[in-house]
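Request from the bench team (R.T.):
"We need a structural guess for the complex before ordering more magnesium ion. Sequence and SMILES attached. Just send the tokens back."

Command: build protein-magnesium ion structure.
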Amino acid sequence: MVWDDEGFSLKKLLFSKINRKLTFLFAIVGLVAPALALFFFYNISVSILSDSLPAEQSVMLETTAAIIITLLLAIDAGVIGFFVSRSISKPIKELYMVTKEVQKGNFNVRTNIKTGDEIEELSVAFNNTTTALAKLDTERKEIDNAKSEFLSITSHELRSPMTPMKAQLQMLEGGYFGKLTKKQKDSLKIVVRNADRLDKIIVDFLEVSRIEAARLKFAFKETNIKDLVEETVEFMNGFAKEKNVTLDLKIDKLPIIELDPDRTSQVLRNLINNAIKFSKNKSKIEIRAKHVDDHILFSVRDYGCGMNSEDQIRIFEPFYQVEDHSVRKHGGTGLGLTICRGIVESQKGKIWVESKPESGSTFYFIVPLKPVEEIEPIKVLFSPRNKIERKLKEEFKSILGPLGMGEFNELKGKNALWKEDLFKYVTSLTRQHILNEEQGKFFKNRIGIVFGNEKDVINDKNVTPTSIFEVVK
Amino acid sequence: MKTILVVDDEEDIRESVKLILESRGYNVEMAENGDDCLKKILSAKPDLILLDIMMPGLPVDEVVKQITDINIAFMSVVRISEARKRGLCTQDNIVDFIQKPFDVGDLIGRVELILGE
Ligand SMILES: Nc1ncnc2c1ncn2[C@@H]1O[C@H](COP(=O)(O)OP(=O)(O)OP(=O)(O)O)[C@@H](O)[C@H]1O
Ligand SMILES: [Mg+2]
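Reply to R.T.: structure attached below.
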């Protein structure tokens, strides 16, 4: 391939255009024709009219000839320019469109440029690259599936030895094989506790593998939410009492909607469990559910230790536990909230937290009134979410200046760091004339890039390709 | 004395369940796969079969099709929703689903309930 050894040269490209098709055209139309025209026009006029013409008129005749030549040259230049630019810009436009498709993750597009020059070679090279990308993409998906599969198989395999182990331990503990000394009992207690812990980790792993493979089972059915929350709270009351914590439940009348009661209860149990865990003795936990727009908003509020804004993002990551919450004291795997997020987001809901160190936390989640038709696979392990938030933070800082950080934190607090939310936010900024139209578009573009997808912006006809190029660079 | 047939491919599970149920005065027979289960039914004439749903050999749906007059309780690490999805819990004589790892007290409670004691 030409590019490999010589590299790309614009000069060469332009020369190649002129050499092949246009030199000929240029020579004929641009030089020969006007020269001939001039020659004939001048000769004829001079030979016919030479005697009768006064001197000044013959000068005029010369001038006319000159003007005609100039005109011809101008038209000629226009024609050549048109063809040159068309023959270059058309395939480049095609390449551009296809590049955009590739950027969106569609690796099955190919260019079909038959210009017989370097642009065609470029297009062939481009097509080869997309083929390679498509192959890599397929491989990536296969590896991803294999990972989920592996996780699922291993967790099942890990779980089967737990059955006889737990059974034997319980029998020992229950005195089936004779009375135990205190030391034996204490020792056994430790083994039992850790077997339970191990089993919980395995169960959580299974759950995560299901979430990632979109194999989380949802059984949507008409549910009275009030009853559901009441039952869940009743169930958690046992744990709350151990710590003298009151569970305060207030729910207005709610519509009966289709949701998965077990999954919803699972999320609530996790949140209430955390709330109890991170509350002081004798404090209160408030559980609410209300109907807002097209969803139900659940909230669990505690007056416990709370957390700073950095941790508020990170607690939804797998295995993340806030350091000074002394894991040892509380136990747990750090998968609870990850699973909650998976369950909630798989059905197109949202989950977020508002919190202040020392004054407590409120966890919110919303569930749409209408159940989703298809469960989404959610990347909860190795999720790119945190990277995205970090990048967004930088964009806010660089575009909005010192104002940016506050705005970013506020949006994050509302769990509005999603693309649609951010686009709405930018639109509101331009409406309030905090940003002008240009800046607004630029901001949206940057947001689009952070989310690795510019579809919405590209389709916005007001944005010219050049402005995108500027942004992309 | 009532007889319970425990079918599981894992010896440790069979032994554990046997120990637990024998402590409650049941007669316990064991089988390690579907074919074995069908054979043992003839000789042991159990009142209840505790059947693992994931075993090598004869698929469990084939096994249960051939058992019509004895109560069966499934035992499994998978959830009941998954088992239902595989169309496993349709027969009338399938009376319970015991989630593994089970709680000893819970297992005894369920078995006694089924056997009406
Ligand atoms: N209500 C809360 N108040 C303060 N910190 C919280 C609260 N809920 C969660 N956290 C913090 O978030 C971390 C992650 O919570 P998560 O539920 O995912 O894991 P965990 O409770 O530690 O373990 P697991 O739920 O797997 O048993 C916790 O370790 C804790 O540091
Ligand atoms: Mg938790």
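Two things stood out. Chain A has four domains: 3-134, 161-212, 221-368, 385-472. Residues A 270, 274-275, 278, 302, 304-307, 315, 320-322, 325, 332-338, 361 surround adenosine-5'-triphosphate (ligand 1) (CB under 6 Å).
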